[in-house]
Amino acid sequence: MAAEILKLDGSKADEEKIIRAAMMLRAGGLVAFPTETVYGLGADSSNDAAVDRLYRVKNRPRNKPFALLVESARAAITFSQTADPVAEKLMRIYWPGPLTLVLSPPAGRATGFRCPAHPVAIRLVQLTGRPIAAPSANVSDAPEPSAPEDVMASIGDKIDLLLDGGPTPDRKPSTVVQVRDGKVSVLREGKIPADEAMEAAADVTLMVCTGNTCRSPMAEAMLRNMLASRGTGGRPRIVISAGTCAFAGGTADAWARQVMREAGISLEDHTTRALTPRLIAMADRIFAMTEAHRSTILSMDPCAGDRTMLLHPGGEDIPDPVGGDIEEYRRCRDTIAECLKARMEKI
Questions:
Q1: Where are the domains of the chain?
Q2: Alpha helices (runs of H) in 159-213, residue ranges in sequence order
Q3: Segment holding 237, helix H or strand E
Q4: How many CB atoms lie within 10 A of CB 307?
Q5: How many Å separate Cα 239 from the centre of its chain?
Q6: Which residues does 331 contact at the CB level (< 8 Å), separation at least 6?
Q7: Which residues make beta-bridge pairs with 241?
């Protein structure tokens, strides 16, 4: 018997259709639905019979576990019983979105988790009330289904319900990244390029000032110099800087370049950049030059409080040397250097 098809049109009536699909999942049924990548096929992950049927419909080897769709990073951490700062960082950057994270709990086998960005998929997870085992809605090794017709042609007579949301926004599947003990590997490249995912997983320190022309570039360059002799511990280190009121594409202040040359460090290649929510999300730690900068960072991302601090360990502002003479820039440089030495244990 062919699956029941509920067509979605973006109206308020869609909610009742998604509720029906969630009830079907909770009753042990199999439901196909759109995501932002391809169509998924869902089963209640806590229902062994439903998961067993999912394996049979997919014709998938039993040694290949299904990824689970969750409604939030907190749900993934709770369900996996895994607290890994690198994994949490990738969740912060890419979720909801096309990233599947394979986590390895202290006991038990590794499991993939994904928080989907598609409004139908995330609402289905929320209404189901538990993680959904959700591979693509096709027989294993068949082309990924990006339209409801693809699903029906492949497995339409083997499932219970199809939420027809039309073609999916992107034909590429999610990128699958494994995180184990802080080490990252890309198992499958998809929507997110592999090199981008690896860069996002790096240990990132972000320096923030106003215009990104003197204080934060000096701090960035000096910290890079200090870290040059350190090992990475297997995880790449990146130091960047940005300004709360910066214009992209500018250069470092002339006197900032001069005083850094005196210290044997070049700012000639520095290019200014504006502070963005994505930069904040990428940072493992953020050093602000003043309390006003810290407040701006937290206004952009209130969840960044535990990663954001003043560079000065005494909680003092580091004054902007712009408008002062070269001696002012030298004092600023030396203050930043002393603060970085004091902060090295946090980096």
A1: 4-192, 202-346
A2: 194-200
A3: strand 237-243
A4: 18
A5: 18
A6: 321
A7: 207
What is the phi/psi pair of residue 244, to 5°? -70, -25
Rounded to 5°, angle at Cα 97 from 61 and 148: 60
Q: Coil, strand, or helix at residue 164?
A: strand
Measured CA to CA, the distance from residue 207 to residue 212 in angstroms comes to: 9
Nearest CA to 222 among 264, 276, 280, 178? Answer: 264
The one-digit pLDDT tens for each residue of the chain (347 residues) are: 789 999 999 999 999 999 999 999 999 999 999 999 999 999 999 999 999 999 999 999 999 999 999 999 999 999 988 888 999 999 999 999 999 999 988 777 889 999 999 999 999 999 999 999 999 999 998 999 999 999 999 999 999 999 999 999 888 899 999 998 878 999 999 999 999 999 999 999 999 999 999 999 999 999 999 998 765 556 789 999 999 999 999 999 999 999 999 999 999 999 999 999 999 999 999 999 999 999 999 999 999 999 999 999 999 999 999 999 999 999 999 999 999 999 998 78
Q: Given this chain, do its domains 4-192 and 202-346 carry the same CATH topology?
A: no
- Looking at domain 202-346, its CATH superfamily turns out to be Response regulator (3.40.50.2300)
CA–CA gap between residue 227 and residue 222 (Å, rounded): 9
Query: In this structure, which CATH number among 3.40.630.30, 3.90.870.10, 3.40.50.720, 3.40.50.1110 belongs to the domain 4-192?
Result: 3.90.870.10
